[in-house]
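Section 5: illustrative case.
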């Protein structure tokens, strides 16, 4: 595994992100090489870098960049996925709202293939 991939994995695996001042230690590389890796990850838009102060010392918290969700993935028949904001305590296997939504999705898919 390349060092960039290792760095990205460490960042992605940490829900709060990783401090840049700790990342180079975790990767067992020097801080200059770590800075170059972070720049590549930033330039490729895989991570975000947020300023962080710890004991008066400035560093950066590195987090996985949040991907923008394609709204088409949660829409069917002009209706939003019913699970979004649902307060019912059901299982997805038995949810009538979800089944109706999936049925609508299947109809749309069939209609697109028939055209």
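Designed sequence:
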């Amino acid at each position: 595994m390349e060092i960039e991939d290792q760095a990205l994995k460490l960042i992605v695996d940490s829900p709060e992100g990783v401090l840049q001042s700790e990342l180079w230690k975790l990767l067992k590389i020097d801080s200059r090489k770590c800075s170059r890796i972070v720049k590549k990850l930033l330039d490729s838009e895989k991570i975000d870098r947020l300023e962080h102060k710890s004991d008066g010392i400035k560093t950066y918290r590195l987090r996985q960049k949040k991907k923008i969700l394609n709204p088409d993935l949660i829409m069917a028949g002009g209706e939003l996925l019913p699970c979004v904001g649902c307060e019912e305590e059901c299982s997805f296997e038995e949810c009538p709202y979800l089944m109706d939504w999936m049925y609508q999705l299947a109809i749309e898919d069939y209609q697109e293939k028939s055209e």
